[in-house]
Amino acid sequence: MMTGSIPMGEWLTVMVMAVALGFDAFSLCLGLGMRNLNRWYMVRISLLIACFHMLLPIIGMQAGFYMSSLLGQITIIAAGGLLLLLGGHMIYNAFKVEPQEWRAMESIAGSLLFTLSVSVDSFSVGISLGMFHSNLLFTILAFGLCGGLMSTLGMILGKYAGSKIGEYGEAVGGAILFTFGLMFIF
Question: Is 146 exposed, middle or buried (0-12, 13-18, 19+ CB in 10 A)?
Fold first, then answer.
């Protein structure tokens, strides 16, 4: 829904969710950056993540608008449950014992697959926000900006840090989404 003025509560909710999704991109790109990538590959990955962080919420929000028109008030509980599941999954993935392998392919197809997998969570969040009829333009710009900037920051820090900070970024993002899910339900 496109409106001129954005209520403060909606603005804050969208920004916090954009940062939470950005933490997921940050943590994955931190590990990717440790592979000593060249600058142009880092730019390509960041731009693709930003684009997918804008495209997937548009699709998700349209699905959410449709679902809310069909289901009415039940969509609030469904949206909260979706955020609970997504946040819980992100937290679980952050603390898995299995070692993560980075298969950063230099090809365009490999870049597209990697960035799509990083950005797919924004589709689910888009569905939740669509059920609440969130401002579409503001949401996609916030998601794209946070996703692109945080992925760039992750790759730059990964290139220079070489430490294991990244595994906790996804957990922080998951905890934020989980908390919003609880707020929507209760």
Answer: buried
List C-alpha distances in Å: 134 to 8, 10, 92, 94, 182.
Answer: 12, 7, 28, 29, 18
Among the listed residues 27, 29, 18, 19, the one whose alpha carbon sits nearest the alpha carbon of residue 56:
18
Instruction: Identify the CA nearest to 139 among candidates 56, 47, 48.
Output: 56
For 59-70, write each residue's pLDDT tens digit: 988 888 887 777
The three-point CA angle 17-181-13 to 5° equals 30
pTM (predicted TM-score): 0.72
| Three-state SS annotation for 127-154 | HHHHHCCCCHHHHHHHHHHHHHHHHHHH
Burial (CB count within 10 angstroms: exposed 0-12, middle 13-18, buried 19+), residue 41? middle
Q: Can you give the pLDDT at residue 170?
A: 64
DSSP 164: S
